[in-house]
Amino acid sequence: MRDLPDDSDDEEDQAPAVQFAGDYFGTYQEEDFDMDQNAEPADPNDSENLDEDEMPKLQEVLFSDSESEDEGEDDFDGHWEPNVPALDFEHLPGVAKGAGVAGIAAAAANEHDEATKVPTPAERAAGEEQVRQRPIIVEFTDGDAGAPLRRGEPGYESYKAKLGDPDNVWAPFTSKLEWELAQWAKLRGPGSTAFTDLLKIGGITERLGLSYKNSRELNNIIDSKIPGRPKFKRKEVIVGGEAYDVYFRDILECVRALYGDPEFAAHLKVAPERHYADEDQTIRLYHDMHTGKWWWATQRELEKRRKGATVIPIIISSDKTLLTLFRNRTAYPVYLTIGNIPKDIRRKPSRQAQILLAYLPTSKLEHITVKASRRRILTNLFHTCMAKILEPLKGAGSEGMVVVSGDGVARRGHPILAAYVGDYPEQLLVGCVKNMDCPQCPEAAKNLGDAPVAGEPEKFRDLNAILDALAAFDEDPAEFVKKCKAAGIKPVIHPFWEGLPFVDIYKSITPDVLHQLYQGVMKHLKAWIIEAFGAAEIDARCRRLPPNHNIRNFMNGISHISRVTGQEHDQMCRFLLGIIIDIPLPKNLNSGRLIRSVRALLDFLYLSQYPVHSTETLAQQDDALARFHENKGIFIDLGIRTNFNLPKLHFLRHYSLGTKRFGTTDNFNTETTERLHIDFAKDAYRATNHKDEYPQMTRWLERKEKILLHAKFIRWRELGQPSTPSVPPGIEFDRTLKMTLHPTRESVPFDKLIQDYGAQFFRDALARFVVSTNHPEYSARQIETYSANLAMPFRRVPVYHKIKWVTEHLPDATIDSVHATPVTKNTRGKPVPGRFDTVLVNLGTGKETGVDGYRVGQLILVPRVDQVFYESVTIEYSAGKFVHLLDLNADKFLRLVDLKPAGFFAGTVKALSVPVLTNDRMDRILAACTGARILTFVPYDLRLRLFDIPALDRLPPLRRLIMPLKLVLISFLATAKSTSITHLDLRPPFLNEDNGGLSTNVLRYFPRLTNLAVNLLDPVAARAVCASCPDLRVLVITPTTVLEEYSFDPRIVFIEGEIWQRDAAHIGLPDFWTRAESIVDERRALLGAAIQSS
């Protein structure tokens, strides 16, 4: 009996050839190992047994990042759609005459009210909110999990020592150029022969200073001087007199390579944790593998034996794949990764967190003529090879081995097979289970379609009984066959997992979203829907769907597509429910049960892919499955199905427990395996001469891995050898708006906005936005009044045709986008219809889920108002006239001056804030704004002075002047521009700038001065200023002594704290002076009242 950790109650070089032990039992009979004779025969159209080479369904394939995405048109005749028979709404049960679509939907919803209650949006939102927040973390304390043994040299330091030349950043290459050329040749360049021909061109190697002259010399450098991951070994396996090669690596060295990669050091998980969504620790969270129950239970078992263990969960995945489109050349790669690396890193091929462990034999053993014998020998061949590859895990898993992470910390690691990832045929092969059976539980094939019983614990295959049956082979082969049949498995000789410690292979088989859901259940659901409603109606509705980022338009329908990929099934699932919601069923059957069953499976599909689960979201997932089983009888009533004994549908009941054991499904999705085939099999095969390819593929892969790892090392050296960042990937997933660098159309006139985009009220809407943004205190009526008189200083705007959102969780994936594209013409001159997407507009109260607080709208325009206007247009209301204040970026503004007609800004810019730049640019700015009455000089360099600026003479009489005291020169005041100034602010740019003594000689140039602001001013100087300005109403100062010494004059107002702001929206506005004047008025009123009372 095997001692296994119990997580049910957890809260949670070439070796000599060996003779293959295979065809041991002589002649076979079909009934010895074929499927259950009572099981329903597999439908050839169901493809349950197909082992297809699915194209990857990764996010970067699903979503295009192109600005021109979806902007083409489908070239079809608008009248080609066949006539669809009229639908009889009138005789449907529960539908009133003339009720239409709404009545049908209501009738469908009302039927069978006793059905399982569908979670409300509020309930769904509550569950999703739990997984968005940072968790409460409970660490494993029952022992010394992950305890370090010693600290040594970090990974990159030891790597540098192996290169032998610590002073040369590019070692073993002599220069940066030589390294980058080698990197290009091995990762991006042509074949070896072409690269050698390039280097043979006269003078190339000498001029570039290369130490290698051909591909062979470059390969020698890479092979002998650059450290890398473990090398491949070759072992011969002889079957029926035929020899087959298996190429594999030392699995323990592979584990050390992954665990010791310096790029992963800061992110490694060395101990299990329990994550909760609440302080009371009642709502458990699951995401990465260390949050699951398996790791906690295994850690607890190891700590009982010997404290200080570090669990290293081994994740194995395997899958056959085609290498060529013709000739049926195949490969059988086996991949390895470890659960200590977070899933966000593991599933990115660019991070090299998955390693190719082996290439298994792919022969069909056609020299064995008996089909039954051949199938059994193929199974035994697989297990024999895998047993040899995984044999080192037996000792290391029990006793442990020293592993060193990339930061130099050594621990006692226990590599234990935790999860096996594969599609359905692979799961059957690994578990030695017959076709049409569940690979996890002993449920009979005829009962696979039954609904799970609420509250009943999950049943798994009896591992101890299976191990007893397998042990009988060495004693009595005949009895061995009988015991295997009684245990519900095929008679396989010593499966690879038989002696592995802490392994229950049936619990290690993980959910498979790609093949079980998209290529399994959803494929069946689509076929059932088409049969229920008719292919003509379903295809017609697919053609009528409006364009949308998240929906692919199948213009030829979906009923006739053959060999549908997982990606295409995913795209179909996005609109499947929407197109059937109001279609009546034949036989006057109400469609309520069918709609509920479809929704239930779609709910399960999307819930199962949550990157973080809580106990409540898992309950919602189980509830969705229960709702399907409760309503699935409609398909039997329609004659579409006689039963639901489908292994992939049955396996859905195991998803929740799988998540609790190992974390969410994105830890083990076979999409990653499909994507790895490209890098580790297909590209490797293309790099060979297609003869005796496996030795070439393994050498090519070893060199590629060395180059990729060396590139990371060099990047580390170039950055100054920084320590690895210690911030691990989080579990918060926020959307980020992302726009293209340049707009689609650079300059669109206002009239074209109306003509092409239908934006009739753009100018009015923009005016209201400017007023309300700069004056949020205005009422709606004031905004309407002020915006009606706002003069726009431009008549054209740049326009985007697309908005998109990305997420840091998947930075290369566009998770949503909307389009606003007018009618255009394609390359053949034919018109392409415009596209203006429907959107939900958040009114300010909308939440992450639900539609409350949203309004449906149509996006017709995405303009960009240039920063020089958008950020700086400010409204000032004075004496019934509106003026504009522009805080200018000088270079941008001068470019606009060159583009606009002469005098364009003279009538619009009434207030001007400019930096003190070179005199020629100052002169050009002032010459363009001859109507400015308020002038603010913002000095970037106090050594500059205002003089010799001819444009000053062309300005009209100024009313207000804002400038530092140091810039007030007699040469400027002598221009007579100061005689009309009433408001003078000498404070900028620094609050505590020493005024150097404000001379009353300066003030005599401002005879009409009523308001004055200066920085530091002592009482003596303040008294002199008040005396020299007879019309002065307000003197704003920062005091230099106690306030009482300034009490001689009520016109003096004190400003304590920072008041100078460089944002022109706050410079020189009436509000500043109004506040100061109100203080003075209050003082005088109090003084008058005091005099009167006395």
How would you describe what is shown here?
The chain is built from 38 helices and 35 strands. Strands 1, 3, 4, 5, 8, 11, 12, 13 and 14 form a nine-stranded mixed sheet that branches. A nine-stranded mixed sheet has the order 27-28-29-30-31-32-33-34-35, sandwiched between helices. Strand 21 and strand 22 form a beta hairpin. Helix 15 packs antiparallel against helix 16 and helix 27 crosses helix 28. The longest helix has 26 residues. It is globular and about 120 Å long. About 13% of the residues have low confidence.
Describe the SSE topology.
Layout: E1 18-19, H1 59-62, H2 100-110, H3 121-132, E2 136-139, E3 148-151, H4 155-163, H5 176-187, H6 192-200, H7 204-208, H8 215-225, E4 233-239, E5 242-248, H9 251-259, E6 273-276, E7 284-286, H10 293-305, E8 309-318, E9 321-322, E10 330-331, E11 333-338, H11 343-346, E12 355-359, H12 371-390, H13 393-399, E13 401-404, E14 409-421, H14 424-431, H15 463-471, H16 477-487, H17 505-508, H18 513-533, H19 535-544, H20 566-573, H21 576-580, H22 592-607, E15 613-614, H23 615-631, H24 633-637, H25 647-650, H26 655-662, H27 670-686, H28 693-718, E16 735-738, E17 745-749, H29 750-757, H30 762-774, H31 780-788, E18 796-800, E19 802-807, E20 810-821, E21 824-825, E22 831-832, E23 835-836, E24 838-842, E25 854-858, E26 862-863, H32 867-870, E27 874-878, E28 881-887, H33 890-899, E29 909-916, H34 919-928, E30 934-939, E31 960-962, H35 970-973, E32 983-985, H36 1000-1003, E33 1011-1017, H37 1019-1028, E34 1034-1039, E35 1052-1054, H38 1070-1093
Parallel strand pairs: 1-4, 8-14, 28-29, 29-30, 30-31, 31-32, 32-33, 33-34, 34-35
Antiparallel strand pairs: 2-6, 3-14, 4-5, 5-12, 6-7, 7-15, 8-11, 9-10, 11-12, 13-14, 16-19, 17-18, 18-26, 19-20, 20-23, 21-22, 24-25, 27-28
InterPro entries: Plavaka (IPR041078)
Biased composition (Acidic residues): 1-14, 29-54, 66-76
Region (Disordered): 1-80
